[in-house]
Specification:
Blueprint: H1 8-19, E1 29-38, E2 41-50, H2 54-58, E3 62-65, H3 70-74, E4 79-83, H4 84-90, H5 94-97, E5 101-104, E6 107-115
Parallel strand pairs: 4-6
Antiparallel strand pairs: 1-2, 1-5, 3-6, 5-6
């Protein structure tokens, strides 16, 4: 399999951010509404696909597990970080959510972390 490469826009944004005084992180997002299911429970949720700087720039604290890492992006890992509102819909505790496989749309993803939503 070919090694994934950065898109031209990503490279450009990275270069611009490095040249701007005071910018220490940046991110790009894509938002949509989709279903998440676990066993027989299905809920519609808002999903944010985000680039690597998202958690740092938004100063989102982790409640359990970890945030996305470089290798998750490079390897196109099927992992997901959820907020505490999603946890309440499917699990009893933040820790119960970790390593569970949920279906997002048609894709199975392993929960690696829970973050505190502002």
């Amino acid at each position: 399999m070919a090694k994934p490469t950065k898109l031209v826009k990503e490279v450009w944004l990275e270069q611009v951010a490095k040249q701007m005084p005071g910018i220490d992180s940046y991110f790009v997002t894509n938002n949509l509404t989709s279903s998440i299911s676990l066993q027989k429970t299905v809920k519609n949720v808002n999903i944010t696909g985000a680039s690597q700087g998202y958690f740092k720039a938004k100063k989102l604290g982790m409640l359990a597990g970890r945030s996305l890492q470089d290798n998750d992006y490079k390897n196109f890992s099927r992992v997901i970080v959820i907020d505490q509102m999603v946890v309440k819909k499917f699990f009893e505790t933040n820790e119960d959510a970790l390593n569970q496989v949920v279906t997002v749309g048609n894709n199975d993803c392993r929960v690696i972390g829970v973050y505190k939503k502002h």
